[in-house]
Amino acid sequence: MTKQETHTLDVSNVCRQVKEAYRQKNKLSVYHGTTNSTRSLRFKTGEFVDISKLNRILAISEKERYALVEPNVPMDKLLRATLKAGLMPAVVPEFPGITLGGGIQGGAGESSSFKYGGVHNGCEEYEMVLGNGELVKASANENADLYWGTACSYGTLGIITLAKLHLLPAKRYVRLAYRTVRGAEEAVALLAASARKDFDYIDGILFSKNFGVVMTGKLTDDNQNLPIATFHKATDEWFYLHAESFSQRHPNGEECIPLVDYLFRYDRGAFWAGKYAFRRANVPFNRVTRFLLNPFFKTRTMYRLLHTTNASQQYVSQDICFPQKTTLQFIRFVDETLNIYPLWLLPIKPALHEKLAPSWLQDNLAINVGVWSESTRDADKFISLNRTMEAVAKNLGGRKTLYAHAYYTREEFWKIYDLGWYEALRKKYYATDVFPDIYEKTNVSRKYTPSLRKGLWDFIKSPFKIPIDASKPE
Ligand SMILES: Cc1cc2nc3c(=O)[nH]c(=O)nc-3n(C[C@H](O)[C@H](O)[C@H](O)COP(=O)(O)OP(=O)(O)OC[C@H]3O[C@@H](n4cnc5c(N)ncnc54)[C@H](O)[C@@H]3O)c2cc1C
């Protein structure tokens, strides 16, 4: 069978399952074996559609610069394949295990997002299974409301079974310039000014109240005699530690990073989230221990461990998008109330039509603030802290990325998102009775019971995939 024939067969199975659920009014989630969400997910037989087989790249057209990609293809596999044709996606989220489908549905972005927006903005067309089991195409010209609406909808409008992804010419390196800043005000101003210039990549890290770095990158084939830094080997430093020490030594320094190392530079250590695991396990955090424990600190493994130990209510993990004009106020709130550093700053081109996108904001530039830190072990205090962040973000016109824990009440949630538009779209495309709605799907309504011992055992039993169990679905 050709890849296309296998695809057609697998998709017809998905259509059949959804059609049956539609007939019986059963709610279905999407299962694909992994997740980069921090919410605990459980999948019960009969209550999900398994799309994990949809992990093939059907075609890459070098001439017309596009790829036909099934949704369960992870970013590292996608990049490897497109690079063979000298091409790359415009937006490659920082973690290699993020899948194309999850990236589209979860609003994934990265340091080229100031120029291109989210992963979904690189997709010209989707093949989708609707709630009644019908297979349709969605693009800016065909079913345009579905095409724009499905971005960041967490699988609540239909199931993507294929995406036509636009590709760009790739280069060997990213030439990265580090500019130190003396605090949030300078960081936000420099990010905004850089976003108006001709860079390919921009992001920033605030290491403390008075020290941070803004990094701007340009694709290049020539390393121009600059030092070359890599970030994939156990002997390499975690990127954020390197960025801090490099920029302290060279406040206006530059270096070249091989393309794949650059795009996945935050994989080892999950930005800096891995540091908190060392602390929790009472293991010293130094170059030797990072080297020895390297296999456990790649994001794929870290996510499995986070889920098996059920520990995510002990770590703040939020990405919140703000209009540029209120970003500073949010950073001040985090500084004064939570005192969390480092903070990640990512400029994003505002969404124009994608009403569920975190970057659907009224400003010329959106800035995502990544707040990731260890937190209290008291679940009530943890929830209360998250509720405070949600209230502050809402008052400042911010929107959360919903991979994270959300504790909004239904009323609060639908004051942020457009319920009338969303319900009409779900009705039009037969989603209402088959797919859980976005509030149900992203709200955390219970307290988790963490367990290190059980978690390690569950991890050993299933290190790579979310097992299917008999509990409540996602
Ligand atoms: C510390 C931290 C840092 C992060 N940093 C970044 C970052 O730098 N850049 C970034 O982009 N993201 C980041 N994320 C978030 C991540 O991008 C999102 O969680 C993304 O959605 C993950 O994709 P996934 O493949 O794991 O999808 P999943 O989590 O499995 O899926 C997301 C949603 O999409 C649905 N879905 C999946 N496939 C389909 C499909 N084919 N059809 C319909 N619905 C589907 C799922 O049901 C789910 O509701 C970060 C997360 C954390 C915790």
TrEMBL record:
Main location: membrane
Enzyme class: oxidoreductase
One Gene Ontology term of the molecular function aspect: FAD binding
One GO cellular component term: membrane
Bilayer topology term: Single-pass membrane protein
One Pfam family here: FAD_binding_4
Listed InterPro entries: Diminuto-like, FAD-bd_PCMH, FAD-bd_PCMH-like_sf, FAD-bd_PCMH_sub2, Oxid_FAD_bind_N
Record's subcellular location: Membrane
Stretches assigned to the FAD-binding PCMH-type domain: 1-170
UniProt-listed Gene3D superfamilies: 3.30.465.10
UniProt keywords, alphabetically: Membrane, Oxidoreductase, Transmembrane, Transmembrane helix
GO biological process: steroid metabolic process
EC id: 1.3.1.72
Protein name (Swiss-Prot/TrEMBL): Delta(24)-sterol reductase
Source organism of the structure: Candidatus Liptonbacteria bacterium RIFCSPLOWO2_01_FULL_53_13
